[in-house]
Amino acid sequence: MALVFVILLLYWLANAKPETVRGFMFSFVIVALIIAAIVLALMGRYLLSFPLLLAAFTGWRRYRMVKGAWQTYQSFKDKVSGGSSTPNSTQMDRKQALDVLGLKDPIDQKMVNDAWQKLMQKLHPDSGGNDYLASQLNAARETLLNELKEKQ
Q: Which of 24, 92, 105, 141 is the most exposed place for a label (fewest CB within 10 A)?
C-alpha cells in the first residue's frame, strides 16, 4: 500500500506545475518539522523539539513573506504593462503614466519628480528591481513631464 502511495505521489509530482510542487514540498517540510517536534516533546526531549518548532515557524513566515512579495511584484508588473499587446513598449498615455507613478490629477513637475524618485529608489536594478520596471518608471515620468511642458 505504501509503495502504491509513493508511486502515485511521484507521478503527481512529475506532472504537476512547478509552483504547485514548490508549495507542496514546502508544506511537507513544515509538517514534518512539526511532527518531529511533537514526537520529541512526547519523548521528553524538549530541548530538541523547541528548535524544530522555531524552524517551522520561521520557515512558514519567510515563505509567506516571499510569496506576498512575489504577488505584489506580479500585480505591479501587470498594472504597469496595462495589458498592452506590446509589453516592451515604453510609450504610454497619461492615465498609464499616472497609474505607474501612483499619482492623481492635478499634478505638477515637483510631484512627478518626487514620485519617480521614490519609486526608482525601490525598483532600480541596482536596488533589487529590474530594467523593465525602471524603464516603465522613466517612460511614465517622461510622458508626464512632456505633457506639462506642452501646457506651459
A: 105
